[in-house]
Specification:
Keywords: Antibiotic resistance, Cell membrane, Membrane, Transmembrane, Transmembrane helix, Transport. With 464 residues, the chain is mainly alpha-helical. The protein contains 18 helices and no strands. Helices cover 78% and strands 0% of the residues. Helix 3 runs parallel beside helix 5 and helix 15 runs antiparallel to helix 16. The N terminus and C terminus are likely disordered.
Amino acid sequence: MTTTSLSAQPGPVARRRWTVLAVCALSMFLVGLDTTIVNVGLPAIGEGLGTGTRGLEWVVDAYTVVLAALLVTSGALADRFGRRRVFRVGLVVFGAASLVCAVAPSLGVLVAARAVQGVGASMLSPVALAIVVSAMPDPRERARAIGIWASVFGLSMAAGPVTGGALVAALGWRSVFWINVPVVVVALVLVAVFVPESHGQRARRLDLPGQVLLTLALGASVWVLIEGPHIGWSSPVAAVGYVLIAVATTAFVRVENRRSEPLMDLGLFRRPVFAMAVLGAIAVFVALSTALLLNTFYLQHARGWTPLAAGLTTLPMAVGATLCAPWAGSLVGRLGPRRPLLLAGAFTAAGGLCLADLGQDTDVRLLLAAQLLLGIGFGFANAPLTNAAVGGLPASRAGVAGAITSTARQVGSAVGVAVAGALIAGAGPDALDRAARPGWLLVAACGLFLMGVARTAAPVRREA
């Protein structure tokens, strides 16, 4: 088989470039969908497997923590062994793990299978972005492509609860995992037909010490957030967790700074624009995952709504994200990332503040308005944050920057789920609204932080 490199092609045919983008976007649809589709089915999973909020948090975060920890390594493996090859392996692993999730007889099996799903998903996201960036050399065209890419990802994240609610209502909670199988099959066929094999210009060495330390730091952080309400924040066990986080994080930074080819190029964080884009990505996904989890438990437990009805309340979010993501990409291409980031922050903050005084009988119209505002904010956020992270970097570093940004998104998702779960842990149906209020204030704070990130964003750089 002849091996080609998208980045080495002097002028790929426009139709081929956009076809490759479509295939990559389908993989991102899978990754995003599985991050949120499970949320609305959590109460049904809890009833089916006999577990409470703590176990359900692990159903979500086992996926996101593993995905976050392995994204950069998977990108390095793709550069070394071939992007299409790793991409296809990721699809197969993801699909097989989905089958295990669908037939899981216990919580332990489900959580383990979700972790394996995260392994497969980690082989999709960084490769997809690397291909998109290398296939679109013109900054304006790249910004539009990232806008479409972010639109599909935003649609999958926001549409997950709607899709999940419909599936749970019609076929039960296991169907939210069965749905992945046909999508994986279609994606495998499209990759085989349209995506050429390609490699990085120079394969990076694997950084196993850095990988272990990063996984340990992320896993310990999420463990403390999820288990803290149950073991006590000041208990000796929690103190051990704090020490483990500090030691693992410090060791990770020291190891990465001493390696010639680190897992994460920490030097990128010396660029204020990049560092703020990463923090902004974390904030966006903390807000999104917090909002989705609080919405699910409030509507189903406190107000007795069905999974389908609860999922349908997020439809305005899906509409807002889908419409605004490509618009954001266009704005980035013409005006740079600052304006769409300001819009993202303002709408996200407004959505959180709408529900800061949530009660047992809050008007449904207010709930829908809040979801629409959050969806608009989410739609405006992804394209400028991704563009700010990779903009101005040579192609050789764009893939690493994109992988770090993708890692930040999943870290934000994991943290948001853990924080939201900690807020409502042990709260009965009559107290869920009050327990959720700090979470909605956190969502608003994330929006305000995004507005601060916008102040550091520079206009898009154009190649000479």
